[in-house]
Amino acid sequence: MKHLIFVILEHSHAAEETLVKLSKMGYNGTVIPSTSLKHTLENDGEVPMFINLSLLEHGKFENNTTLYIVAEEEQVENVLDIIRTTTKHFKRCRGGMFVVPLESYEGSF
Known about the structure:
By secondary structure, this protein is an alpha+beta fold. Helices cover 36% and strands 28% of the residues.
């Protein structure tokens, strides 16, 4: 059975290191830049199209990395361990992850 691994990481060196390590281990997925609900509301509901200096100065711009990986059941724990190691259990890089079993899956991942 395939599983969907969903990961959100604050944009940081640890997030980049996580993606590189997963890729080197042969895993593939989809990476989507994202922002938190809190930071979206602080920007009056607008997700900024361009970074401007005032957003950087006031710390209102937050870029997260959202990652989706479809993996076989026997691969899931290895993927989670890589993420735990590179983020130091989300202490080096804030974020979170969860796994959902996929009842049905079609595709070429």
